[in-house]
Specification:
The protein is built from 6 helices and 7 strands. The N and C termini lie far apart (53 Å). By secondary structure, the chain is α/β, with parallel strands linked by helices.
């Protein structure tokens, strides 16, 4: 009997046929809401479907997002007046997005696969920069390219990788359905 490689199997299913099109579901921002109240303007620099910006707007945050501007291009940060970068970047470009964000040197929170912790290059990138993480207790159901939510969660876990945030701990484990998160969401409405 052969065992299927789950990564290979799931990545070929329709909902993951385009790995850079994992659009942010609303519940993915819940663990972040309490920690971003201090910021006036958020830059969603990987503006794809606009779902992340819509979710943040719903909770009263001012979000700038430029769907045709290249965040990776030097000087891109001057196009928008912002206090923090919050985005769900294309995962195939995560290294470039991280490098660029560190270069800009403003607070940021990127929703990335937990496997982002792996690798020599990223190890060096994170080592002396005091990266903090918000790690949910479950995987998200990313929306697919047509905006519909998938019926099941994706095969990989994600977390918010935060830089220049004042989180209580280096690793912050959160329960997505906890009363604490619900309370924080009501406070942000």
């Amino acid at each position: 009997m052969t065992t299927k490689n789950p990564k290979k199997y799931y990545s070929k299913r329709e909902k993951f046929s385009r790995p850079d099109e994992c659009y942010t579901p609303e519940n993915a921002i819940y663990p972040l809401l309490h920690h971003i109240k201090k910021f006036n303007t958020i830059w969603d620099c990987a503006f794809g479907s606009g779902m992340l910006a819509e979710h943040l707007n719903k909770f009263g945050f001012n979000v700038v997002g430029l769907d045709n501007y290249d965040f990776l291009k030097k000087g891109s940060e001057t196009i928008a007046n912002f206090d923090v970068i919050i985005t769900n970047p294309p995962y195939s470009l995560k290294d470039k997005f991280l490098e660029r964000a560190f270069e800009i040197d403003k607070p940021f929170a990127f929703l990335l696969p937990l496997t982002t912790l792996e690798g020599i290059k990223r190890n060096k990138m994170f080592k002396n920069r005091n990266i903090q993480m918000i790690i949910p207790n479950r995987r998200f159901n990313f929306a697919n390219p047509n905006g519909r939510k998938n019926k099941s969660s994706c095969w990989f876990a994600t977390a918010w990788f935060c830089y220049k945030f004042d989180l209580p701990e280096q690793l912050n484990f959160v329960e997505l359905n906890s009363k604490e998160i619900q309370k924080q969401n009501k406070e942000n409405e």
